[in-house]
Every structure is written in structure tokens, then in C-alpha cells.
UniProtKB/TrEMBL annotation:
Xylose isomerase-like TIM barrel domain: residues covered: 25-265
Record-given protein name: Putative hydroxypyruvate isomerase
Catalytic activity: 3-hydroxypyruvate = 2-hydroxy-3-oxopropanoate
EC annotation from Swiss-Prot or TrEMBL: 5.3.1.22
GO BP, sorted A to Z: glyoxylate metabolic process
InterPro entries: HyI-like (IPR026040), Sugar_Epim/Isomerase (IPR050417), Xyl_isomerase-like_sf (IPR036237), Xyl_isomerase-like_TIM-brl (IPR013022)
Record lineage: Eukaryota, Metazoa, Chordata, Craniata, Vertebrata
Length: 280
């Protein structure tokens, strides 16, 4: 069974450093070969390209723009009436992904509009999401980019987020019916919404295009106190033959570097060295 590969989410890790370039350098120094980030749209793509080249890391995932955060947006994929905004955001994400040689984009579903009942809005939002995902699939297929949808829990993180469970996501992907739109498995969210992780991982594995991790409930390091036994979960993913990256999307309890003992232990247990050779 091949060892797992991990990437640093620079929107969560190394945030003690203010600049993306500094975070990318710190991630490389800590042994990461790849990074991911939520939104990078306040920076010039050529500057970001220069930063990752100098750091010697790959960018493996970015998100579509959130929309108008001031009016409560957190993605637009499933929001009726915002289709043109979604398409414009997708075009921008593709431009950044192309500059960064990034082959995965998280197509954010968005929130149930304020004042609307979730159950009443669900049908129209699902139809909107399916149509937007099919449009995105056609755009991304020309670029060789994989689109991803991610359920986000509504019990702790975001009560109004539309896509909130692996079962809902799997049903939508089946209706979309495009091989280049897959499931982003964030184990933190899956545990909070549904639990039953071993079975859910195995059942949904053919749909999975990316994975992210954090401990529950504090969203801290995988080896911090909490509900999840990550050495066991890593063993399940190894058994399933997962070949992609696992995004470290957690909130360090102290400095990022001080909290990487879990990762160093994983490398030691798999007889992997620290540095550029660890994740070939």
C-alpha cells in the first residue's frame, strides 16, 4: 500500500506569516511538496506563480470566488438567480488555476438565501447547482481541470450552507453525470454531519477527488484531543489505495510547525524522509 501524500492549506496553516510567498516557503521547509488555498484573488496570479516556483511546491486546489461576502455569500453554485455571477467566478478561478498549474477547483455551492426556508428552497437550489455543475464540467474539461463539490457541516461551521452531507453530494453528482466533477471529502465535516466514517469512505470512495482533514470538534491538528482516530483513518485510505493529496485544513493550536508532530510520526512510521523526497 503506497503512503499517503499531504498538502498544506495555506489559508489555515502558517498563518503566523502574513504573505502567501512566506507561507509557501515555510510549507516547503516543513517537508510539504504541495499546497492548497481557499481564495487567492486579492493577489496577482503572476506574483503567486513566482512564489510557488521559488518555494518549489505545487498548488493542487483552489476554490471558486465566494461572491459578495458583505451580503452573505459563500459560493454561488447552488444560488438561484446568481448564475451569471457563478460563471464569471468560474472564469476567474480557471485563469488563476491555469497560472498556478492547479488541476482542481472546489466549486462552492453557497448558502440558502437569507430569509428562505431550507426545505422550501431545496428543489430550486439543487436544480441550479446541477445546471451550474454541468456548465462547469464543460468549461473545465477543456482545461484538464477537475471540479469538486464539498459538503460543509451545518451543525457547527455554517448553518445555512446548502450542500451539507456526503449522501446529498453523492446524489447530486449522480444527477450531474460528469466524470470530471467529483467529491471533496472533508473528514471534519463528514464526522459532524453523519459519522459512520469507515463505511462512508468506502461507499463514496469511487466519487472522491480530494480529501481534507482536521480533528473534531475543535478543528485542530489530527492528533489533538477529539473524536477521530486518524492513524486508523489513514490506514483505511491506504487500504483503499488513495493516490491524491490530503489537504491539512485545520487550525493549529500553536505555531504550525510545533503542531506537525503527527505528520512527522506518519513519515517515520512509513520510513519516509523529511524533505523533497518524501512525497514523490
Amino acid at each position: 500500500m503506497p503512503p499517503l501524500k499531504f498538502c498544506a492549506n495555506l489559508s489555515w496553516l502558517f498563518t503566523e506569516l502574513p504573505e502567501f510567498a512566506q507561507r509557501a516557503q515555510a510549507a516547503a521547509a516543513a517537508g510539504f511538496r504541495a499546497v492548497e488555498a481557499a481564495w487567492l484573488y486579492d493577489a496577482d496570479p503572476l506574483d503567486l506563480q513566482k512564489a510557488i516556483t521559488q518555494a518549489g511546491v505545487d498548488v493542487v486546489l483552489i476554490n471558486t470566488p465566494p461572491g459578495d461576502v458583505g451580503r452573505g455569500d459563500l459560493g454561488l453554485g447552488a444560488v438561484p438567480g446568481r448564475e451569471e455571477d457563478f460563471r464569471a467566478g468560474l472564469d476567474l478561478a480557471v485563469r488563476y488555476a491555469r497560472a498556478l498549474d492547479c488541476d482542481r477547483i472546489h466549486l462552492m455551492a453557497g448558502r440558502v438565501p437569507a430569509g428562505q426556508d431550507r426545505a422550501a428552497a431545496a428543489g430550486e437550489m439543487e436544480a441550479t447547482f446541477i445546471a451550474n455543475l454541468r456548465y462547469a464540467a464543460d468549461v473545465l474539461s477543456k482545461e484538464g481541470i477537475l471540479g469538486l463539490v464539498e459538503p460543509i457541516n451545518t451543525r457547527i461551521t455554517d448553518p445555512r450552507y446548502f450542500l451539507n452531507s456526503p449522501h446529498q453530494a453523492a446524489a447530486i453528482l449522480q444527477k450531474v453525470g460528469r466524470s470530471n466533477i467529483k467529491l471533496q471529502m472533508d473528514i471534519f465535516h463528514w464526522q459532524i454531519m453523519d459519522g459512520n466514517l469507515t463505511q462512508n469512505i468506502k461507499t463514496c470512495f469511487p466519487l472522491v477527488g480530494h480529501i481534507q482533514i482536521a480533528q473534531v470538534p475543535g478543528r485542530n491538528e489530527p492528533d489533538s484531543p477529539g473524536e477521530l482516530n486518524y492513524p486508523y483513518i489513514f490506514g483505511v485510505l491506504e487500504e483503499m489505495g488513495y493516490q491524491g493529496y490530503i489537504g491539512c485544513e485545520y487550525r493549529p493550536k500553536g505555531t504550525t510547525e510545533d503542531g506537525l508532530g503527527w505528520l512527522q510520526e506518519y513519515w517515520r512510521s512509513h520510513k519516509l524522509g523529511h524533505g523533497s523526497e518524501i512525497q514523490d
